[in-house]
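Format notes (please read before filing issues)

Several people have asked whether sequences and structure tokens are stored in separate files. They are not. Every record keeps both together, in the order shown below: the sequence lines, then the token lines. Line labels are part of the format and must not be stripped during preprocessing.
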Amino acid sequence: MPRREIVAHPRLGFNSYILPKSFRGERTYDSYEPNPLGKHPDDVWPLQPIMPSAKERLGYPTQKPERLLEYILRASSNEGNLILDPFCGCGTAVAVAQRLNRRWIGIDITHLAISLIKHRLLTAFGDKVSFKTIGEPVTLPDALALASQDRYQFQWWALGMVGARPTEKKKGADAGIDGRLLFHDEPSGGRTKQIIFSVKSGGVDVGDVRDLLGVLDQQKAEIGVLLTLQEPTGPMRKAAASAGFYSSPWGTKHPRLQIRTIAELLEGRAVDRPAAAVPGVNVTLKDARPAKAAGSSEQEDLF
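Then the structure lines:
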């Protein structure tokens, strides 16, 4: 067989073997065959950005494509290895690590991010994923401590407890709304409806209930909920009861204005809303794509 050399070819770079020929002491390269080891890896990964209509898009401002994290994890780890993402945002690295059979630890400073990650994992993997959340309040003293440290983090955590998403702070009509929970309770094609939330980490009185009722009417929302650390007074409960009920298309009734204390949420008392257990009703957070059944990643060990 002719001797082979790997040289830079004008059109093929280093991706082919060149078969040298000698002619009067000078070598010429007039034929080639593919490199049996395959194409040399490029130093650029071609990736498409997450388009607005992409199925994997969750609406988090710094979300990275799953394909990018898959490249990184496959190139730098084996199945069973531990992956650490100390700034995990909406949890792309965590979700990809779970799908590729890696162990993982995700860390983020905001309770908003933690709520999104939990929702993402549960919608993508269902009962096939188990994890433990460390650092969230689990008792009323924990919640009081968080509220005294940072009222915005407390607000995001409280909204996460009820599956709501924080609103951007605006002046004017939205000034009294801290979060929204969107839902569908009509046949396919029906309009999206909403529950609006006001979160209070300090003292509350009947004026807070009346303010929320005014915003509820102004926004034409179906239900309003006041989340509070403090126990509501008798006049607050009376004012809430005066708002009446929202009737769903299938005949269930739900108080239009509700008050939930943080203690009640920690005890498992949920917001009274239409068909909370029916799939597809709560559309506040976009569901992650269901992950394919776990199997071999067909990757040989790196080390």
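For reference, the curators noted about this record: Residues 66-128 form one domain. The CA atoms of residues 40 and 139 lie 56 Å apart.
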